[in-house]
Amino acid sequence: MNEAAITDLITRLADDALIIAHRNSEWTGLGPMLEEDIAFSSIAQDKLGHAQALYNILHTNFGQPDPDTVAFTRNEAQFRCCHLVELPIGDYAFSLIRHFLHDAAEWVRYEALEQSTVVPLAQLARKIKGEIKYHLFHAKTWVVQLGAQGNEESHARMQSALNETFPLALGMFEPSEFDGELAAAGIYPGEGQVQQRWLELIAPVLEQATLRMPLVEGADLAASYGGRKGYHTVHLQPMLNEMAEVYRIDPAAEW
Amino acid sequence: MTIQSLDPRITRAGIPSEDSRPLEPKEDLDQFETWEVFHQQKRGDFSEHVGSLHAPNAELALVMAKEQYARRFKCVGIWVVRTADILTLNTEDEDIFATNAEKKYRDAGGYRVGNRVSAFKQQQAQAKSEGAA
User: Fold this and answer.
1) How much is the pLDDT for A218?
2) Strand, helix or coil at B37?
3) CATH number of B29-96
4) Is pTM beyond 0.90 here?
């Protein structure tokens, strides 16, 4: 029952986690300061762990292949991640704003999933809650620091990154054909409701950071949709090729 | 010319190779101030000093401390304090730490009270049994 809907939901969650993990890990060794490099890398590793746990649920409970096969052998059309997570790391302002907008959505999603009727999903949501709480704390602190307590340049760069990133962030909440079914079965509240709670969560932080929330009226027209149906930006496939390079040379390699 | 590396991230960054852009020396102390980090491994324990880090302010020092010093092992509490705010005695001045080895007279161990406590208890017990009789 609801198997297609649940598989689609978990694949969306897992693919977002895997791709943002890989993107954020591209900062390892190149971060703006040692402490931040370590913190951001550690956050990326946590997300990779979340992706693995989600692929494991798909494997154990819903008949999907094992996590490595799912992560490393699909092509872009089989991925269900949103466009936001696919983009290259850009400058640190972009990566931080993406981290903030994405992790705020993650917080809202997993908070709702704690009540999910899909037991392994609810268990996972409770298990990783603390990590996501720290990720969001890290993101919020930087956004407020660079928005309100830095200087004119830091504020301008954060605002411009926010303007550029916002339509992509709205793409996280691309409506799904399964939204009604998932909500009715008490599995997941649906993307419309999650987006609303996300807006309520980020608004006070942006205000504290003295950053202007970009357009919300007509947001669905601006939103970068397509990812959840397998239509991606030009950035995803090259990233997948790079991510799977070792796996393709030797699928049994351990490292 | 940009740096071509085995690490595709470096190649993508388009960093000019050194012959076209000489390294500029950085200003001295071009970094954030330092903070000392203390962690508590379980509730009720003392907070122990575990190291230091750089951060621009107290909030970010806490954010960084959590991930630098509490990402691997159990930790239930974190303190940070600006290194400059820690007051110390001059550690070069060894005399001030010098202490007289012979001060047994100040140890509580010097008091012999065990026999007096036993005597008191015995006396109480005796008084009680006499009262009952």
Assistant:
1) 67
2) strand
3) 3.10.20.520
4) no
